[in-house]
Sequence to fold (474 residues):
Amino acid sequence: MDVIIENLPLYWEGFLRTLFLSAVSGVIALLLGTVLAAARVSPVAALRGFSMAYVEILRNTPLTIAFFFAAIVLPRLGVKFEQFEVAAIIALSAYTAAFIAEAVRSGVNSVPVGQAEAARSIGMKFGQVLSLIILPQALRTVIPPLINILIALVKNSSVAGAFFVLELFGYGRQLANSNGDQVLAVLLGVAFFYLLITVPLGILASTVERKVAIAR
Amino acid sequence: MFARFSLMTTQVPGEALVSLKAVNKHYGQLHVLKDINLNVRKGEVVVVIGPSGSGKSTLCRAINRLETIDDGKIAIDGKELPEEGKELAKLRADVGMVFQSFNLFAHKTILENVTLGPIKVKGVPKAQADKDAMALLERVGVGHQAPKLPAQLSGGQQQRVAIARALAMKPKVMLFDEPTSALDPEMINEVLDVMIQLAKEGMTMIVVTHEMGFARKAADRVVFMADGQIVEDATPEEFFTNPQSNRAKDFLSKLLTH
Fold:
């Protein structure tokens, strides 16, 4: 266990970077995913098609491919960035957005159709029906699955460690290499810091779920 | 009395507030609306009755284009219903709709349910919208429920709020799609009373219902539908005492024997 105590500053730095990657990617993915879900239910066929294709491709390919694409293909296409961290954020948010879009879409479908009909019949336009009536109700019902997706995102961010981003897992790998005799302790330390993010998220999920439930 | 008298004369199309001409609709193979022609004048209360599956709800929903039609023309106040979009939204704001299942916005308070339309669609300032909404809620007898959520109210109260929500848009015509069918018997009257009051105040209303009492009391005209067609179009007295078609006689006899 000494190895954890001795390297606490490294763990802490990795922890903060993991938290940063997860938080930034999570916010982008939530926004992008909601927009994709809105496109999926919009009356415009082209938007529906785009959203469906996006979700199907990103959801059904490994995250590593998204990382390779962001870290290697994008720079060749002329998208340059200083740090690999940016590539990691692009890959993580693009990938997670697909799952969020599916969750939000299922939430939209769970709102009774009469809610939209009532909104339309008092003269609301499509955007108003969606933003004022459907999404506020849909998002409440999908908070538990959304938080599950965010927990997965936190863990998925470890893939960034393989792409030269020194987050929790990246430091963990370094430490394991330099302390070959204490690999188990090093990895337990890494797991502990992941739990420090994911367990509170799970608790938050159940608290929020109870608070925002809508009675019908 | 004037409205009844006017029935006897041929209606001039330009006078109709709601006009349906040769409207047809299919659900796959099923021909739900067959060549429907109907004019409703300003201030008229038209009750649409008929056996279930006769197309009366579809007719009601087609008038504000919650259901699209295959062919024919539907016009509100001389304006034909436009395609889905801004124009249609504007037109719908003038047509109040009350649903069988109330459809109050589940995440908004009673007061917000009523003010949302005026504020977001018409741009009425919030203070004014609140004041108008409270007056409407008082009028339908649920003023003290304003801060509650819809699920905390009884069905009859919810339906009265739904009527207030529609009225808040100051509609030219109100559509009621079986407004009392989802209610417990003891709550039906509180909703019908509000509707009768509305009829007396001169609101143009198209009401799909099974409540024959309401038809007798408040209707200027009864439209009887069966199998997607308008079979009879008469005053309540004529219809209930002397129905012309066998279909209507059969329907009425079933109501009376139960």
Observations:
- Residues 107 and 151 of chain B are 9 Å apart (CA to CA).
- Confidence is low (pLDDT under 50) at residues 1-14 of chain B.
- Strands of chain B lie at 16-27, 30-41, 45-49, 71-76, 79-80, 95-98, 173-177, 204-208, 221-226, 229-234.
- DSSP finds ten helices and ten strands in chain B.
